[in-house]
Predict the structure of Transcription elongation factor 1 homolog.
Amino acid sequence: MGKRKKSSRKPAPARQKVPLDTTFTCLFCHHDKSVTVRMDRKEGVATLVCKVCDQRFQSKVNHLTEAVDIYSEWIDACDAAQDNDEHIPRRAAASSSRAAPAVDSDDD
């Protein structure tokens, strides 16, 4: 048996890992790169904070959780809260600053 012939093909370039974002846009004040996520893996808690408007969100984490996952959970929680608010009937606001007249329920 002889030696193998060397291939004239170039080896495939190693894939470079694209780093995930760690700062995000705030949903409330719309400032770019104002939201940061701090993860305490020992405690199993992540805290998301906006530096501008001080919005906060906490979530549970595990060993696979990344900052972008917490940001996505925050977006989902905000959407869910907004959907719940739409289903709650609102009381009509008074058109003047005077109190409404009292209703007398005495039957004579």
Observations:
- Residues 33 and 62 are 24 Å apart (CA to CA).
- The first strand starts at residue 23 and ends at 24.
- DSSP finds one helix and four strands in the chain.
- Helices lie at 67-87.
